[in-house]
Amino acid sequence: MKLGxxxxxxxxxxxxxxxxxxxxxxxxxxxLDLTRGKPSTQQLDLSNDLDGILGGFFMLQDGTDVRNYxxxxxxxxxxxxxxxxxxxxxxxxxxxxxxxLTLMYNMIAHMVEQWEGEALDSNxxxxxxxxxxxxxxxxxxxxxxxxxxxxxxxxxxGPDMDGIEDLVSKDPMIKGIWCVPKxxxxxxxxxxxxxxxxFAKLGKVAGENFRIxxxxxxxxxxxxxxxxxxxxxxxxxxxxxxxxxxxxFASSSKVTFAGAGISFLGTSENxxxxxxxxxxxxVIGFDKVNQLRxxxxxxxLDNLSTHMEKHRTLLAPKFNMxxxxxxxxxxxxxxxxxxxxxxxxxxxxxxxxxxxxxxxDLAAAVGVKLTPAGATYPYGIDPENxxxxxxxxxxxxxxxxxxxxxxxxxxxxxSVNHLLAT
Length: 422
Ligand SMILES: Cc1ncc(COP(=O)(O)O)c(C=O)c1O
Hints:
Blueprint: H1 8-27, E1 32-34, H2 41-45, H3 76-86, E2 93-96, H4 100-116, E3 127-131, H5 136-144, E4 148-152, E5 154-155, E6 158-159, H6 161-170, E7 174-179, H7 193-205, E8 211-215, H8 233-240, E9 246-251, E10 263-267, H9 269-279, H10 288-298, H11 301-330, E11 336-338, E12 347-351, H12 356-365, E13 368-370, E14 387-390, H13 397-421
Parallel strand pairs: 1-13, 3-4, 3-7, 7-8, 8-9
Antiparallel strand pairs: 2-10, 5-6, 9-10, 11-12, 12-14
The protein binds pyridoxal-5'-phosphate.
């Protein structure tokens, strides 16, 4: 039954029950963390064979010694692997260090140089569109460059393309958009075909040097045995003549070692050449030894997908646990909506308006850390204060279970308190 249909007396009775449970959590002195989407130790263990895999052989087929300087775009074998992952040609792909975020940051630094060559309207700020809820570190990059962020919401097929096309066509100071097109962080969306085709056309109506930052961080991270299909944006962009507007990213962070993986950037060969030049002052070459380790370990797409199945075996029970707990405690009460993702690392939950901060604070007070409310929005401001990102991957299953027990009680308690106060 919907909580809103309860009489005041019924709500008060429920409030006392929930408060009693909450007080018992206080006594339990919990210390649990559902904040960041990190792989668990068991997941990291799946890639321990990276250690020592080279067995003292550091030479590439072309005679390159990977221990030495050079090769800023990465070793050919790793570029080929990245190209397979991103469905691009190897000549369109470079391989970086342990973080695709670094490549994203550097790409924006490079774009800033390009804007300097444009006659920009000095009364207006450079802007990026941010589909929300989204990934906080994308927003942090924009903030660090003083780029104004514009929120655009999601519909079931992906980001609201009507809104995006309207904005982009009217304001040439909009220079980019962040996208996590597959198993989006945190909403779980995979953009449908029509959405990708519309993205491919955006470059035709946008101002100069507009870039679609296509962060395919979860490209291989399925939770179901029917992986979602994402149309290849670059193929579509080539047909539209907009390939210079596309910049793709991926990494092995959530495939092998989150802190010691390799990253990929894919774009038109034109763009890649210009980007390479912009990297020259800061790096002679990324860690090619690690690139070779990854090539030896991941081998090819078939082997990658077998490896990702092992991740799925570890992750699926955790995501099932989240769904089970949310359904059992909240279904039908009309106090929260949440996603059931078929890939990626998160569940996105919306509380009643204005309650996300309260829920996060209630949980923190009994030792359960949740991602701060607002983190999924630019500037940390969720205008409706509703969204909470649940990250179930890192804690062991028994800890996750306890943390979810606390979470649902905090959520219902905050909702009951709110209904009684209004
Ligand atoms: C959408 C998205 N992009 C990028 C990253 C970080 O990637 P990397 O470790 O390659 O910097 C994450 C990590 O959570 C993410 O969710």
